[in-house]
Amino acid sequence: MYGPADEAESIATIHAALDAGVTLLDTGDFYGSGHNEMLIREALRDRDRDQVTISVKFGALRDPDGGWWGNDCRPAAVRNSLAYTLRRLGTDHVDVYRPARLDPAVPIEDTIGAIAELVQAGYVRHIGLSEVGAETIRRAHAVHPIVDLQIEYSLLTREIEDDILPACRELGIAVTAYGVLSRGLLSGRWSGEDAAARGDFRAHFPRFQGDNLVHNLRLVQALRQVAEARGVTVTQLAIAWVAHQGEDIVPLIGARRREQLAEALGAANLELTAEDLARIQDAVPAGAAAGDRYPEPQMAQLDSER
Predict the structure, then answer these.
(1) Is 2 a catalytic residue?
(2) Record's superkingdom (predicted)?
(3) pTM for this entry
(4) At 70, which CATH number?
C-alpha cells in the first residue's frame, strides 16, 4: 500500500529488528493477501520462534484486485482464518490473535468466544482487539481476558485519551499504537505535493489532501523545531512521545528498509523531559490535525469512533 518493496531488503529489515532486540512482530492475514505472513515465515526460518511474539489480525475481506469487502468474524471464519495463518507462518501457534475490526453482523462475544476455544486448544496464546470502543472492550473482556488493544495513536490522533485508554487501563489491557507517524506525515520527510503524485493509498486520506495537508505540514514544521533542539529527527521525537505516554503503550513501527528501522529505533534511547513534552504539546496540541484519519466510509465503520 506504500508502494513497491524489495523482498530481500524486507527480510533483512526483520532480521535487523530482531538483532536489535525487537521481540514483537505485528501483521494481518490480509496484508498483501497473506504475503506478509509468508514473509515473516521466511525471515524466521533460522530464528528461535519462541523469542518472537507474533500478533495477527484477521477478518478483513479482500478480492484478487486488492479491494476491500468488509469483515467476517463469525466463529467458523475465525477458525478457518487461523488455520491458514498457521500454515503461512509455519508455526503451531499465534501469540496474540485479534479481529482487525468489529464485525457489525456478529456479536463480539461470539468472536471472542471462538478465539477462546482456540486458546484452550493451544493454537492461540492471548486475545487482542483492534479499533474498538470502550463498551466493546468491556464486553469482550467479560468473555475472556483481553491483553492488548491495537489502535491508532499519535500526536495527530489522540482521541483514545478520552474514553478508550482509561477503559484499557482500568481493565489492565495494554495498547499497541499503530500510525505513530500518521502514515508518514510525522516522518518529517513529506513535502507539499499532493499524495496522488506518490501513487499510493494516502491520496484517498483527508489529512493528505489540499488545505488539510498544508495545515498539517505546518504542525510538522513546528515539531521539527523541537526535534532539532534535541538533536533528533521528527520521526524519533514522534515515536518517543507515544512511548512516553505510559509503559502500557507500545509503538508499532512500520519499516520496509533497514535505514528506516535504524532511525525509528533511535527513539528508544530518547528520554523526554517535562520541558520537552510541554514544547511538543505547544507545537502539536491535541486535536490540532486537519482532516479525519480515514476516508468517511471507513470512519463510519470504526467502532472506536462511535
Answers:
(1) no
(2) Bacteria
(3) 0.94
(4) 3.20.20.100
